[in-house]
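Q: What does the assembly look like in three dimensions?
Context provided by user:
Components: two
Sequences:
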Amino acid sequence: MTIKEKIEQANDIAVNHIIDANPVWVDILPAGEVVDGLEPNMILHSGPPIEYKDMVFLHKRGMVSGALFEGLAKTEAEAVAKLESGEIKISSALDHNTVGAGTGIITSSMAMIVIENKKTGVRAATFPAEGPFQGGLCGWGLYTEEIAANLRYMRDELFPVMRELVHKRGGLPIKPILAEGMQMGDENHTRQSAADLIFNTQILPDLFRMDIDKALLGKVMDYIVKTPRFFHCFGQGASQSALLSAKGTPYSTMAVAFGGNGVEFGIKIAGMGDEWFTAPAMMMKGRYTSSQYSEKDQLPWLGDSCVVECAGLGGIAAAASPIVCSLRGMKLRDAISLTREMYGICISKNRNYPIPNLDFDFLPCGIDIRKVVKTGISPEIHGGMFNRQGGLIGAGSARIPLQCFENALKAFAKNYRE
Amino acid sequence: MTIKEKIEQANDIAVNHIIDANPVWVDILPAGEVVDGLEPNMILHSGPPIEYKDMVFLHKRGMVSGALFEGLAKTEAEAVAKLESGEIKISSALDHNTVGAGTGIITSSMAMIVIENKKTGVRAATFPAEGPFQGGLCGWGLYTEEIAANLRYMRDELFPVMRELVHKRGGLPIKPILAEGMQMGDENHTRQSAADLIFNTQILPDLFRMDIDKALLGKVMDYIVKTPRFFHCFGQGASQSALLSAKGTPYSTMAVAFGGNGVEFGIKIAGMGDEWFTAPAMMMKGRYTSSQYSEKDQLPWLGDSCVVECAGLGGIAAAASPIVCSLRGMKLRDAISLTREMYGICISKNRNYPIPNLDFDFLPCGIDIRKVVKTGISPEIHGGMFNRQGGLIGAGSARIPLQCFENALKAFAKNYRE
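A: Here is the predicted structure of the complete assembly.
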């Protein structure tokens, strides 16, 4: 076999890990029990690895907040000292079986949604939506004692009920919800309005029938029903459990991780293990939530939620969601053209996702770094815009820097030549 | 003012009755209490008025079934005799403030969903979905003792709970659900998948908190969640309460009723009261549920559910739902072209319904019979295909016969000339 044939074969295996994945919500567990390699004195963050001193303000504050939340330090000063000295360890979420959505601050006692790819047994854990809580969200780079209390409340009061619920029903398959939502205007990154509703309709009757105090059940129900984009973390977990199954496929040039830390954006590819290929983090273009914001308030790309694009959803699925694309002033035809463009850099089509606006053609799936470099077409990724001081100030999209793919291809060539 | 100016002004008033309508689900009541002019010994049917002897088999059986259900006769033979003699009265549903969806058999003790247009106080009552019940449906022209028992069960057990629910919350606005569903692939005739889910998410938390036996609540929940197209009757009631508000606007050439009885299809217009303008009922084109069916099994148009097209949804909104249009082999561009074609016969656009696939242009609204006659473009209406023997055998669409509009225009000219 020529190297080219070996790559084709490997990419076929890798992309089928995405296409054939069967992600099922199976549990809610403390991060320390489900995230491989997450040590008690370790804090995770989004994007490629970075040292504390090089972090943007949001990550620095997130690290300190995580240290306080976890009881690794008693004061901010103590936390900073321990983070700088390495006594508190720092690690990239994407170097574990999880995803650093937003700032991606994850510590070992935080409760996580666990998605298992039943096809391979690979599990991925994702940080849950923080509820209809109005006090600001940890995932958006904010931190107060109130936010921490909300996280503890979710973990201690709401999640035991949801855990019993999901155990009782023997898991909840995620792919059918993603697929149905995709026919209803969701691209499953910026928008999961339909998926949220489908989830509610599947879960509430079971919740209702649980033999638990009605007032408590009511609180759990409110948490599920009233939290905006509740299903987002399930889609991320489903994507990550598929990509982790593909990771480590020798000779494969398929991307298996995307993420940014506000300084650098990085990718990984299936045939190169956990090696990162990075470039300076790009800015997002889109629409601000208020006219008070402009590009000077906006942080370069921060967050790993583009794991969903890596698995063929979100920006790759633009045609499914002209309503999301309109956030960037795109028309229906632009949204369709965008997904058609993505076919040019993908390995295959995903038969799980026939799209009405594509006349039921399937979504492109499995980004091949060779095709990206050859065509100069970079994957489109959707996301939320972060304020440099914390908080979400808009939604939009960006292209991943080509340099990431060029670096990856060079390293791949070097590795497989030897 | 010239007659033309009078018509323009009248049509502006009439179409704004549709656009500004505020339909709210307010109650569940026996048909006899909410349908004006429905006498205890009267049975309603879909489409324009027709005598018993001229009815298709489905309507004849429906009449007999209705007589037995209501206790107007003890045997089939007695029912037929009373229907033929006029002792049991027969009336067109669309000549009352209701809609004859499917066969449209409505008797005075049947429980109906009541929608009030809060803008005008006009109420419309629609026959509710018959649940996840597998024994065949009355609305589809079938009848057994089991079907009757299911109707009684709904009326006596499920509906008192739903009635208390809707009273407690002070009504449920229907238009926001239609509008949100319209952005999620529903055209709100053949498809209301999103609307069903939105309805569930709005209603279940309230249901859950009711102080009623949990087992009974569970049954009501199952009825709501598991019934396919549960929301359809709410959309029909919303449409009818708007159209009835427009009905009787002098000088208006806007259509306010569409319906078929399997023999004739008929329309009414706002400026001509309850006068019907008919033509032989047309056949629908679409897709059968099984290859065992062909056109010879199929009944010409039967049913009034096209009340939704009359109010600017369904086939008029094709662009919102390429997934429904694909049932007829249409592509996305055909669906968009169809709605664009409908602009040519409509009076206005409905700002309540911005459609992603139209780049957020609004849906056309208010069919002007003058424009239909002038352009030769007839409204596209979606619907279910009936087996001549009863039961639904497919879904598709048809154009309303031009002759209905030509007859209406002639009568209008004659009336307003005098």
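Follow-up: The interface with chain A takes residues 183-185, 193-194, 196-198, 200-201, 204-205, 208-209, 217-218, 221-222, 225, 321-323, 326, 331-332, 356-360 of chain B (CB under 8 Å).
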